[in-house]
Amino acid sequence: MNTYLPSQQSNQTRNQIRHQMREVRHRLTTFEQQQAERCITEKALNLVEQHGCQTVALYLSFDSEISTESLIKKLWQEKINVTLPVLHPFSRGNLLFLKYQSDTIMQKNRYGILQPKLNVQNVVPLEQIDIIFTPLVAFDKNGNRIGMGGGFYDRTLQHWQQKSFLPVGLAHRCQQLDNLPTEIWDIPLAMVLTD
Hints:
Layout lengths: L2 E2 L2 H20 L3 H21 L4 E3 L11 H9 L3 E7 L7 E5 L6 E3 L5 E3 L14 E4 L3 E3 L4 E2 L5 H6 L8 E6 L4 E2 L3 E2 L8 E4 L1
Parallel strand pairs: 1-12, 2-3, 2-7, 7-10, 8-11, 10-13
Antiparallel strand pairs: 3-4, 5-6, 8-9
Helix pairs in contact: 2-3
């Protein structure tokens, strides 16, 4: 069940959760991070196979998120198309997804996160993506997620039940809370894969 709090109180609570969960994630050891990456990679590959995916959206890890490097390489080996999010240049607060290959030219966006250099020929429409693997800061048992606060993924995942893709979060087990405060624009995920 969603808990709707007054907006100012909700924002304060959500920011506290962001801060606390990022601290928890930063305290993980290199060994714990590597174990999590192996476990998540295996689970994600199984899910991709079960759904017969041809194209998936991923993200490059940032700020102690579970590394997606191994998963991306294994997807390439399996001839699965990989896309990465790019901040939309004209529609503020929205994402585009671009093909990502080993020779893709990369650049940092305004948040300091690497993304493919914008080339309209490499844009992949959402209708062609089978799974969107999303980053998150915290999640709960109902699939609610808290991200970094920009709302990019919430806008992308709107009405996903009527679209062709499945939204799946990737997270450390320690990022799970019982219940998150939610707002009406929050979009729950279909599932979250953890270590």
